[in-house]
Each structure stands twice: as structure tokens, then as C-alpha cells.
Amino acid sequence: MKRFTPLTGQCLVFFLLLSNLPAHINAQNIAKRITASNGDTIPFLEYKPAGHDAPGNTRKYPLIVFLHGGGEQSNNTSIAAGAPVWDIEGFGPSRLVSLGYKMAFTWNGQVDTFIVLSPMCRSTFRSTGNPIGQWQVAYITSILNYAKNNLKIDTNRVYLTGMSFGGGGTFGFLASNAANAKRLAAAAPLCAPPHHFDGWGSTPNGPQYVGEAKLPVWGFHAENDVTCDVTGTTVPIDSINNHIPPPDVKALKTIWPDGGHGIWPRVYNIDNAAYTYGYDGIVNIYEWFLGQNKSLPVNVLPIASVGNDTTICTSSGVATLSGGLSTDADGSIVRYVWKKISGPAAGTIATPLGSSSSTTVSGLTTAGVYKYQLNVVDNRAAIARDTLTVTVTSSCSDSGKALTMSSLGRITAGNVTQLNNASKFTLEAQFKYDATVSGWTTIMRKSTSLTDRIMIHIGPNNNSIYVMVGNGNNTYGYTGANAVSPGTWYHVAAVFDGTQSGNANRLKVYIDGVQQSLSFSAIDLPANTSTTNTAPFMAGGEPGCCYLNGTIDEVRVWDTVLSAATIGAWKDKLLGSCHPNIAHLVVYWPLDDNTNPATATAELGTAYGGTITNGTYVTSAQATTSSGCSGARVIFAPPLEVIKENKPLTGKIYPNPTEGLIQIELNASISKSVTVNVLDMFGRNLHSNKTFVVKGFNRISLNITSLPSGVYMIEVRDGQVIVEKYKLMKR
Topology of domain 310-395, per CATH? Predict the structure, then answer.
């Protein structure tokens, strides 16, 4: 930009006249002119996609109109080589065209190519010779009319953008009358000068017009811009959002701390790696434009969610970043962008930007607290964010692993014949899922049909556990609602004994070693499983349906009945030869051997290995202690401070009994993250709250008014160590 001219000037009203003068061609831009009724000539650069003028082409193209800065103003309306209009090629989308870019971008699976028009503004009024201090609305209207009458534009996808003098021109066009905002699908002003805020500060026109048009507006500026103060963007953007009535579409603003008056490469350029995804490496302005369409309803913004914070060991150094809980109510999430925002220098994100909801960070071998930001982008190019804290500690020993399942993930073995025509079996697994599920969610299955199957499922919408045992009929048992909840590790065991009488004796379900009360299907459970069920045995999901969307570990199948005592004693232990039922172990996947990431290794002499589809080995955070005969792992030993002081937290809970509002007072000898769990008397986790306590006095508030009257246990955990525990009565 060569100079900046303060905005002063009056709006002119033009009547369009076309001048079809052939144009000089430089790269892919073509210089043309249109003439207004008062004799003013407007030169402009035009870019049309290849094939635009092909016979029979009925395609409609999105249009970008770019308004240059004050340094490109000129009264020289020549379109010959070297004329001032060609200076516009140094900026904005016309610069990309001059570099050979075809202005084709893929968004939401569709490739679109922009038409780009870049008009030139006169520097003085032809009639008076006075400086033109602001982009004339009539020039912008003229170029839009030219595009509508002469080019194959999609009138639902017309975008206006400009920088500096052109940023002010963009705001000025929106504020001049109600019809202007309604002509556009989106507007993006950059580093606009503050000048008088005509139509934005003293009058409600601009905010009112933008709000009525439901127009997406995104302003960009740098805090340290000394040429055009940052208020040139913040005042009009804030006035849109603060207008009464409030707009259906909130205006966006990006204010960088640095960059001065030269931020436009961050927005417009895509010709090097730093700018490919323009705005902070998440989405570029051209993708954002393509996400805005005047014919579509107002976009419902996505919700980003990273789930619970996590802790890993330095010995592993690998953390899983998952945005699988993120949602978009009226569309889909098309891009996940991960950024490290704080923590030690270690760590490399495997896929910082992509369409997959999860990735990994490796090389976290330095203990400390790392924070990662998830940016999700929906199909309308809206962005939402959430932050995950990864605590890396060296105070763990012999960390085990588990398997995180992504979409349609599963572990598949062959036909486990011991489950055919079986009168007895026990199925066990440890699992954690990420969100309340709207459909059936598979933990284990062996199925050919609804009437010929063995399954453990999480029921849709109510967090119950279903166990299906069918032999000619759709027969099953199921727990009450909310037997499990998202974000928590559970051990589940399903015990079938067809030699017994009555459903309650034939099928028993244990969660974390506690037997559950079951309801049953109208038809009684069979005495034996099917002889024709030769389907493969699977865990963690099934093809085309019901994937776990979580993590699974310690998958076990027995061809006998395990007692409640044995289940309780071994639910948190790796198996070993001293297990009382070891001779009846049929399938055992401890999921600790990730030598071959596509395989679930069969252990303890079992014959059925598993093939992993869409699963990733991760460091396991659930407690699995040594069995005494297996050399098993111990997860997350207490930090040294806890060992030395034995109890880093002391406190009290009140009122007790309570109507539902609870205060926990804690005195901490060290600062640390803790988790407060609310459990019922069966040990089921009903509520979890992760918080950070500082050294000294802390107060934590809980609200359990939604829980029924009864007795509950309140735990305060440091990782897997219970440091405080209270029995609480709710009236």
C-alpha cells in the first residue's frame, strides 16, 4: 500500500453505462471499464474461471468483489499495461490470480471457483477536484450490477471484502442502505480506518441493516495498527452484536496483537505454508466465503468438546486427542484443528489439521502440564473451540495400554466355537465411552440376527447395559437407566448359566463387581446358545453400526460361570495362571502389546487373536493392579509428595444431611488437580467434577438436587488414589 487517505467525501449516485472496451490481459486478470452517468469511469480487474464463456455452460459461480486501499486510488482510468489499475494485482484475491491461482477451493466436498472483480476508486471528484475520502457506494453498486448483468454469478454467493480504505468502504456500503447488505452473502473488512463511523456509531443504520439481512460479517485488525486504529474494526463489529434487537448472526472479529497495518497477507494469501489456512491455520477467507450462502437458513454454531482432561506417563509419551464429542446441530463438522497453547517444548501432534476427530501427540517425555486447543469447523465454516489439559507425569510404573475406537472401530476374531450351543459362559471387559449414545453401542457381539446372537450393548439414550442371549427368539436382560455414564472407566461382566431356572438365575450382570438388578424380555432366555451362530466374535463395535466411540481393555471370554467373588477379586487385575478358572479362559485380549497396531494379541495360551479396525493403542488410565502371578502393571502411583505426607488433602463436607447443595472444604498441602465423584451405594458413579485445588484453603460446590433422596458416597480422588471420602445423606 502506497499511502492512506483519510475518509471525508460524499456518496455519489451513478447510473451504469457499459463500456465493452477490450482489455489488456496480464496473467489471468483482465482490465475493463464501466462508465457512470456523470462521466466517471471505473476501471477494474476481472477474473473469470476457465469455461465461464463456453457454449452451453449454465454453471453459476461465487463472486468476490475486492476493494483496494487508499494507495491505489487514481484518476488515471487507462487499462493499458502499466496503468494504475494494475497496481491492484499486488493485493487481495487479485494478487493470487496474478500468481496463477485459479481461485478454485474445495469446501464441504465441493469444488467452487470464484469470479473476482477488483474495481479502482478515483482519487478526486471529477466535478470539483476535491479528494475522494471514502469508497463511493455507487462504484460498488455499479460493479455488482455489472457482474449480475454480464457474468454467470450465483446471486446467493456474492462476497464483499476490502482492506484499509477498502475495509472502510466495505463498512460504508453496508451502512448506506438496507438493500446493500441484502445483496451480499458475507462481508470481510480488514484494518478499516475509524474515521467518523458514519452509520455505525451515531446512527443505528449499519447494525440495523446487517442484522435485518442476517449477514455474516468478519472483521480483521491488528491491535498495534498505528495507521488505522483498531477501533475502526471493533466499534462497527461490536455495534452489530450489541444492537437491539440482537442479530441472528453474530459478527466476528479477529484482533491480532501484532502485524501493524500489514495484516492482509494473513487473510488473503495462500501462496505459502504459513497462509494456506489463512486465519490462524484453521480456515482461510475463501473457505469461509464458500460456507456462507444467502439462500440457506441461519447457521447453528457447532460445539467443540474434547472430553475429560487426561494424564499419561513419560514412559509412554503418547496422548490421544479426541474431538469425537463435538457436535453440529444443523450440519456436520468437516475439519478438526489441534494447536498446542501451553506447556513444555516437548510433543508432536500427528495430524494437527484434518477431517478425523482424533489424533495423537507423541514425544511427551518431559513431565508437566500441556494444554491443547481443539478448533472444529462446521460445513458452514463456523469455528468453535475447546481446550484439553494433558498432565504428563513420571510418577507411574509399568503403564499398560488400551484401545481407543474411532468410527466403526472394532476388534474381530473368528467364530469362537465355545460360544456355540453353550449352556454357560462369562464375558468381561473394561470400557469407557465418550458420550451418552443415541443408538445401540457395542461392547461385545457374536451375532447373525436379532434372534440368534450374544451381545453386550449400551442402550440408546439411557446409559443402560443390555445383554442379549438369543436362540430362535429376541431374548435379553437389561439394567436400569444410567447404570453407566460417559467419561468413566467401568468393568462389566455378563454371566450366563442356562442350567438354572428363571431369567434372574440364568443371566447376571456385574458393573465394577456389583450385581445389577435386571429386567427381561417377554420371552424367557434359552437354556443354550444357538448352534448356527457361526458369526465372528467382536469387541468395541461392529460393521456399519453401534461403534463404541470410546476405549476398551481387558476383553475376556470364559466357557464357564464365574462367581461374584471371583469377578470382584479380578476385575482390576491382569489375568495370570493362578486365576481359579484359568482352564476355562477362551479369549483374552489384555490389549497391552502394540507391537503390531492392527492386532489384538491373544494371551495366556488362548487361541483367538483379534484384528483391529479403526482402533488406536493408547496409554491406559484405568487402575489395573498386579494379580500376583502375572507380572501385571500398576497405573499411576501417587506423586512423591503424597507418599511423603500420606494425605495431601484434609477437609469436611456440609450440610449433611443436605437438600442437594453441598460445600466441600479442603486444605491442600500442595496444588493439584482432583476429581470429585458422587457414587450411589452400589458404587455407580453418578457425577464427576474435575477441579484444581491450590495449596491451602479451598471450597468446592456441588449440586445434587436432581438425585433422589438416599445415601451417597462422595470421593475426592487424586488420579486413582482416594484422598477423601464422605458418606452423605440427601433428604
Answer: Immunoglobulin-like (2.60.40)
